[in-house]
Amino acid sequence: MEDAVVGIYRLQETTGERVSTSELAAELDVEPPSVSSIFSRLTDRGLIDREPHRPVALTESGREVALRLVRNHRLLETFLVECLGYGWGEVHDECDRLEHHVSRRFTTSLESFLSNPKADPHGDPIPDANLDVPTEREMVHLDTVDEDTTVTIQRILAGDRETLEYLASRGLEPGDTITVEERTPIGLLVVSTATGQPRLPTETARQIICSSK
């Protein structure tokens, strides 16, 4: 159920909309009937707002649970990358397991040890001890950026290791500055990076969040 709460939070964070059964099923890689059962239990615990035949949204209690787990997860990812030599593409699954089992004292100490980071290695904002999320600059998805426009990558929404490693190898990480060069007739986005001109499928480009240079 905690994974479901975090999944709803991530989807709402990305879209700003309520979350459907099929969307959460895809996020968690489970079958829709399993999500329906989870929704019933989350409703009983007051963690989601649910009405018949409508998508759901987190309640304040649900959002607090989600933010606590997101804080754990993003601090752990930062620690594994900065201190233990993990690649940014391999930390997600590790931290999915760990996030449920660390105490508030541990995460507070970890945050201090890491010098109070505001974002994890993927650029995702880290809630502070009060569960306040740092204010982000106005940002857009890379697939919506006009040609001949230079932007700075702020966040990567992709969760799978293969995509993250591909992006890193092409100079597409948070903090990197890139220029959109061309949209090809077959739906690829050509961008200039420090290492070349990769061609990105629209779906991949949509997972890259940017701000003006």
From TrEMBL:
Cellular location of this protein? Answer: Cytoplasm
Q: Where is it predominantly found?
A: cytoplasm
Domain of life, source organism? Archaea
Entries under InterPro entries matching the protein:
DtxR_MntR_Metal-Reg, Fe-transptr_FeoA-like, Fe_dep_repressor, Fe_dep_repressor_sf, FeoA_core_dom, HTH_DTXR, Iron_dep_repressor, Transcriptional_repressor_C
Record carries keyword Repeat = no
**Which UniProt keywords are given for this protein, alphabetically ordered?**
Activator, Cytoplasm, DNA-binding, Iron, Manganese, Repressor, Transcription, Transcription regulation
Q: Where are the transmembrane segments?
A: none
According to the UniProt entry, its GO molecular function terms are: DNA binding; DNA-binding transcription factor activity; protein dimerization activity; transition metal ion binding
What are its GO biological-process terms? negative regulation of DNA-templated transcription
Q: Residue ranges of the HTH dtxR-type domain?
A: 1-59
What Gene Ontology terms describe where this protein resides (cellular component)? cytoplasm
- How does this protein assemble? Homodimer.
What family is this protein classified in?
Belongs to the DtxR/MntR family.
The protein depicted here goes by the name Manganese transport regulator
Protein's organism:
Haloferax mucosum ATCC BAA-1512
